[in-house]
Design goal:
This is Glycosyl hydrolase 36 superfamily. It comes from Parapedobacter indicus. GO terms for molecular function: glycosyltransferase activity; hydrolase activity. InterPro entries: 6-hairpin_glycosidase_sf, 6hp_glycosidase-like_sf, GH94_catalytic. Keywords: Glycosyltransferase, Hydrolase, Transferase. The chain is mostly helical and about 425 residues long. The chain has one domain: Glycosyltransferase. It has 14 helices and 18 strands. The strands form eight sheets. It has a three-stranded antiparallel beta sheet with strand order 3-4-5. Helix 3 packs parallel to helix 6 and helix 12 runs antiparallel to helix 13. The longest helix is centred in the C-terminal third of the chain and has 20 residues. The radius of gyration is 20 Å and the shape is globular.
Length: about 425
């Protein structure tokens, strides 16, 4: 969309379909008549209208979740409410620029038995923050969230709002600076975090697993770096004056992702580059594991060609067929073996170790649409939509036999499916 003299675009270029074919017209007609799409769209609006915490099982507002439903939230909530949530993240921003995972009212933090070491700042009188330090996506998620809010609302003035003694624009850059100053490995030219399963925030070495500790095995993965690339794309659109600084970083990180993380022989991203050894047994072939979520975000970051995107989809579909899962939201395949993670919820096909998440499956659907694979995207979204209706809501994840698990009212899933549905509607409206 055009806004104040510059073009706001997605992180990847939308690939047009050219002159509509008979197949295109038939698909557009099916989309326009598809009541399932409209039912889930309505459900998503209702779900996001009901609040901002990640889901029924979470008291906090999480930035990695808020990022994926903020565009829809901007449609169904007052702009001031949306901005105030973002301001809380900025008020809780660390002196080094880091961004917390989530926030909770102070009164609830005082009585919480969750186990977090809560974060407080003089700027934020009402909320306490927490940060899962094993992950490296909080800063990138906030930049992406602000981009989506501004894109959806047209509220460029928000970038000049002052939080403490700094503008939102300045704080966005500080968040990116934090990653370069504190999470950047100069040997590989990539960001690092703890060893986790794909996009997950649970390390193997602890029964909970959300904090870096003396047992952490530090690693580099595609998800953290792809999220960073998308955030840099967004930042440079919002703040064109920073292109000279961040454009070079963006180009270098993208190149290093393909140099070090892409296995051209297997046509997949490797799970990890280990910086101080692997937590898994030496005879375990981790290289065989295919990361669905990280691959979807890498596609969003523009790292793969259209041919490679189609091959990635074929691999995901094959993984679904082999595992018996319901959708390409399958986190990864094959799974890490039983006992690989001390967290008991990380059993094979449990939670982030092979659970089936619309939260990431919906992102892959969006990328298929943007790369012109509309028919394939329409086929793959159907089981995601159907189970939302079957279970009367959006769940955090599903088992390999398609049973809902985790939090209900999972707003991240609602947000990504809603955004995908909008892309289908956009496609259908352009076919004549």
């Amino acid at each position: 969309m055009k806004l104040a003299g510059f073009l706001l675009t997605a992180a990847v270029v939308t690939i047009t379909c050219g002159t509509p074919t008979h197949t295109d017209r038939a698909l557009a007609s099916r989309i326009q008549k598809d009541t399932l799409l409209q039912t889930v769209k309505s459900m998503a609006r209702k779900t996001v209208r009901s609040g901002f915490n990640a889901g029924d099982g979470y008291a906090e507002v999480w930035i990695r979740d808020y990022n994926t439903f903020i565009a829809l939230a901007t449609e169904v909530h007052p702009a001031e409410t949306i901005k105030e949530n973002v301001r809380v993240f900025f008020r809780l921003q660390g002196e080094d620029g880091n961004i917390v995972d989530g926030f909770i009212p102070k009164i609830r933090a005082h009585g919480s038995n969750v186990g977090y070491t809560y974060i407080y700042t003089p700027l934020e009188p009402n909320y306490a923050g927490h940060k899962n330090t094993v992950e490296t996506d909080q800063e990138s998620s906030l930049v992406q969230a602000v981009y989506k809010y501004v894109t959806t609302s047209g509220d460029l003035a928000f970038l000049q709002d002052t939080i403490g003694d700094q503008t939102v624009a300045e704080r966005l850059e500080r968040a990116m600076d934090f990653l370069m100053d504190h999470r950047y490995n100069r040997d590989y030219g990539l960001l690092w975090g703890a060893t986790t399963a794909d996009w997950g925030d649970v390390q193997p070495e602890h029964s909970w697993g959300v904090y870096l500790n003396d047992s952490t095995h530090y690693a580099i993965d595609i998800y953290d770096n792809a999220m960073f690339l998308v955030a840099l794309d967004n930042l440079m659109v919002l703040l064109p004056e920073v292109k000279a600084k961040w454009g070079v970083v963006r180009e270098q990180v993208a190149q290093q992702c393909m140099n070090h993380l892409w296995n051209s022989e297997r046509e997949k991203f490797i799970p990890h580059i280990y910086l101080n050894g692997s937590p898994f047994p030496g005879d375990f072939d981790e290289e065989a594991i295919y990361y669905h979520g990280g691959t979807a975000v890498a596609i969003e970051a523009g790292l793969l060609t259209k041919v490679q995107v189609k091959r990635a989809l074929s691999r995901m579909i094959a993984n679904v067929d082999e595992s018996g899962a319901a959708t390409i939201g399958l986190t990864l395949y094959p799974t890490y073996p039983k006992g690989s993670f001390k967290n008991p919820g990380m059993y094979p096909y449990g939670y982030q170790n092979g659970g089936d998440w619309d939260w990431f499956g919906g992102r892959m659907i969006q990328q298929l649409m943007r790369y012109g694979f509309v028919t394939e995207a329409y086929e793959q979204i159907q089981p995601m939509l159907q189970r939302a209706v079957d279970h009367n809501g959006f769940y955090e994840w599903y088992t390999v036999d398609n049973q809902p698990k985790g939090s209900g009212t999972f707003r991240g899933s609602a947000g990504v499916l809603y955004d995908a549905i909008l892309l289908f509607e956009e496609f259908a409206s352009t076919i004549h």
